[in-house]
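Why does residue order matter? Because the sequence determines the fold. Keep that principle in mind as you read this record.
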Amino acid sequence: MPKNRIVKFRVSSQQYEKILNNKQVRGYVTIASFLRDLALEKNFFIEEKLIENNKIVREVLELLKNGKEPK
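Structure:
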């Protein structure tokens, strides 16, 4: 689908830096693609929680595999 509309808004310097950081952490190349996904309701909160839970499960499984009690 062609992208032929422009959306503009202003942010503070601190907000811009946070957007840049979040874009990079989530693996986006451009701010536009990152903000487009956010605006179109891609749920990063759920995605982050799933990733966090997967890491915890892997750690617990590794501890159990090594005969140790999870914390």
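The radius of gyration is 18 Å.
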